Amino acid sequence: MSAPSPAALRARTAVYAAFVLNGAFMSAWVSRIPSVRDTLGLSNSGMSVLLLAFSLGSVVAMPIAGAVVLRLGRARTVLGGAVTVALGLLLVSVAVDGLGSVVPAAVGLVVAGAGVASWDVAMNVEGSAVERRLDRAIMSRFHAAWSLGTVTSAGLAVLLLALGVPTWAHLCAVAVLAVAGTVLATRSFLGEPAPEAGAGEPAGISLGQAWREPRTLLIGLLVLCVAFVEGTANDWLALGVVDGHGAAHSVGVAGYTVFVVAMTCGRLLGPQLLDRFGRVPALRLSAAVAAAGVGVFVLAPNVAVAMAGALLWGLGAALGFPTGMSAAGDEEASAAVRVSVVSSVGYTAFLAGPPLLGLLADRTGVVHAVTAAAVASVVALFVASAAEPHADGVALGAGRREAEGKLSS
Questions:
Q1: Nearest one of 156, 57, 172, 70 to 116, comparing CA atoms
Q2: Helix or strand or coil: residue 39?
Q3: Which end of the chain is more exposed for a tag (fewer CB within 10 A), N or C?
Q4: What would you give as a GO molecular function for this chain, any one (predicted)?
């Protein structure tokens, strides 16, 4: 295999930067949610309604993000998403600290949510293109970079809160960082695919066609399941440690930290697993480990065993989401619309999962409610075959060898 080109290596660094910045924005906003609630004088239920505005923006933008990428290109869509996020944050800042009004804050969150969605789809499409140039399944490391961005931003937020920095200053600074960082990063993105007429390369499909493709929808189901597994831990693992195992709140947070660290490590080590075993076996192994981790967490006789379950849960949740995005982007000509469809299906887990589990937790208790994540892992195990590399040869690492072996047999 020939050495990767300098352009591909620069693009890899640029995609890492795009993921870090996206994660940093999300963490900065989440860190200010209590401040925004108190400044606006909202109840918890009122704040939850306000937060739906961000989800609404993402839900509306994500299904059409693929078409935007096709029209504007990956770099411009990422940059446009960052600018949109910045405008949304500025409006939220003015609404909260300047006007003290909920309505303009909600409008700002809708705008920011739309920007994050388009940014998210475009950077995953670019990441998939970089994978193909490098012939290496590194999408999981891009997503680990997103986690690094969230952790770094959260640590900075703690410092800024301790120093009494107001919400408007914090969010405005993040807005400037998002735009400046993406301007620099997108300069090193790969060029857009432009096959010559008659070159024999497949034409891209339309967004409507992508929504009717069985393979694309099954990959979406896979991503939906693994997103549910991850989202369940994000929302309920700490509470499960506290309510289900009688631990202190600090121990509950420690349990969630174990999950996040394990998931980040799993994403960093993911390329080795994918290279060795191939995409589908790695996904099945991950789903089995996640199901086992949730089972151990739920049935644990003490907190120490529950922590071990959280560790397995995090390792098992690491590869599903990024590998699903890689599978959606197998064919460059249609990567944008397929990633858009898969993202739209998958992200519904982050929207619908928390309230559904909340209803279940009211009936069974939190620690038993998270058993639903084990069920989702089993479903993911059975639909993992949808992520098998296309027979036309767009595959990575061991997945490429697997596809070539099938073609020659």
A1: 57
A2: helix
A3: C
A4: transmembrane transporter activity
CATH architecture of 207-395+402-408: Up-down Bundle (1.20)
Alpha-carbon gap, residue 54 to 69, rounded angstroms: 21
Dmax (CA) for the chain in angstroms is 68
pLDDT of residue 296 exceeding 60: yes
User: Structure tokens of 106?
Assistant: 């909600």
Please check whether residue 316 is in contact with residue 374, taking contact to mean a CB–CB distance below 8 angstroms. no
Report d(CA 345, CA 362) in Å as an integer: 27
Confidence of residue 251 (pLDDT cuts 50, 70, 90): confident
Q: For the chain, what are the domain ranges? A: 6-186, 207-395+402-408
Which pLDDT does position 396 carry in this prediction? 45
CB atoms within 10 A of CB 256: 20
User: Rounded to 5 degrees, what are φ and ψ at 396?
Assistant: -135, 140
What's the per-residue H, E or C state across 317-381?
Answer: HCCHHHHHHHHHCCCHHHHHHHHHHHHHHHHHHHHHHHHHHHHHHHHHCHHHHCHHHHHHHHHHH
The full DSSP string for 85-101 is: HHHHHHHHHIIIIII--
| Mean predicted lDDT score pLDDT of the chain | 81
- Other beta carbons within 10 angstroms of residue 333's beta carbon come to 15
Q: Which residues contact 163 (CB under 8 A, 6 or more apart)?
A: none
Say which CATH superfamily domain 6-186 falls into: MFS general substrate transporter like domains (1.20.1250.20)
Q: Is the pLDDT of residue 405 over 70?
A: no
And the tokens for 6?
A: 């300098």
Structure tokens given for 157: 């937020």
Q: How far is the C-alpha of 223 from the C-alpha of 347, rounded, in Å?
A: 8
Write out 51-74 in H/E/C secondary structure: HHHHHHHHHHHHHHHHHHHHHHCH
Written as six digits, the tokens of 398 are 């061991």
Average of per-residue pLDDT across 19-32: 83
Comparing 380 with 239, the larger pLDDT belongs to 380
Q: 337 is written with which tokens? A: 């619309």
In this prediction, residue 280 has a pLDDT band, given cuts at 50, 70 and 90, of very high
